[in-house]
Amino acid sequence: MVKKLSGIFLLIATFCISFSCKENKSLQELLKEETRAINRFIAMNDLEIIQEYPKNGVFKENQYFRTNDGLFFQVVDSGNGKKVKLLDEISVRYDYFQFVLDVAQGDTVKYLFPAYSNIDRYPAALGQPFYFMYGLTQTYTSTNSPMCKAWVIPLSYVGEEAVVNLIVPSSVGSSYDYRNITPVFYGNLRYTRFN
């Protein structure tokens, strides 16, 4: 009887271990999945990816610039001409965000600003803009907000009051997105104040 019970427990343990191994994906698999999802998102939205920033700073309606960091962004409005300076406090808002992996699988849910606080991973104060200090990298991410390095990159090209759309790979995403290999799209991200 003891041998039969031991055999049954061994069989159950083997099944559980082999099942969980199939469910866990390697880092390489997750990164490939992320790349496929971003490429699908680009194809689904009929986006043109350009390798050089437009000399006049004007983007076509479906055109996105790919940076060396892997960020894709489109300038909707280049702003009022005021350029960011080292240690300026930047205020950021956006209209909505989407999880690119979900969109690539047909889920088109848009999380409207300030509804990000309804998502467990971003329990920030409802309706408040996000702030970071330009040049102070430790302010670019936070465990309780979607702030990320990707929000800083377009500031080399645009000014205060600029509006951009971003396809953010996890490598330049928020701390949560980086840990979980989660690419995100931000619609109409605005740099509302430099000071």
Structure write-up:
This protein has a single domain, classed as Roll (Chitinase A, domain 3). Helix content is 26%, strand content 23%. It contains 4 helices and 9 strands, in the order H-H-E-E-E-E-E-H-E-E-E-H-E. Strands 1, 2, 3, 4, 5, 6, 7, 8 and 9 form a 9-stranded mixed beta sheet that branches. Strand 2 (63-66) and strand 3 form a beta hairpin. The longest helix has 22 residues, at 2-23. It starts with a helix and ends with a strand.
Secondary structure elements and their pairing?
Layout: H1 2-23, H2 27-44, E1 48-50, E2 63-66, E3 72-77, E4 89-93, E5 96-99, H3 100-104, E6 111-112, E7 130-133, E8 163-168, H4 175-180, E9 184-194
Parallel strand pairs: 1-2
Antiparallel strand pairs: 2-3, 3-8, 4-7, 4-9, 5-6, 5-9, 8-9
What's the order of the H and E elements? HHEEEEEHEEEHE
CATH hierarchy, class:
Alpha Beta
The structure class reads alpha+beta
Give the amount of beta strand, in percent.
15-25%
Q: What's the story with the biggest beta sheet?
A: 9 strands, mixed
Oligomer: single chain
Number of strands: 9
Mean pLDDT: 85
Fraction of residues in H or I helices: 25-40%
CATH topology: Chitinase A, domain 3
The CATH architecture would be Roll
Radius of gyration: 21 Å
Shape by Cα distribution: globular
| Whole-number tally of structural domains | 1
How many helical elements?
4
Amino- and carboxy-terminal Cα gap:
76 Å
Low-confidence runs (pLDDT<50, min 5 residues)?
4-22, 121-125
Short description:
By secondary structure, the chain is of the alpha+beta class. Helix content is 26%, strand content 23%.
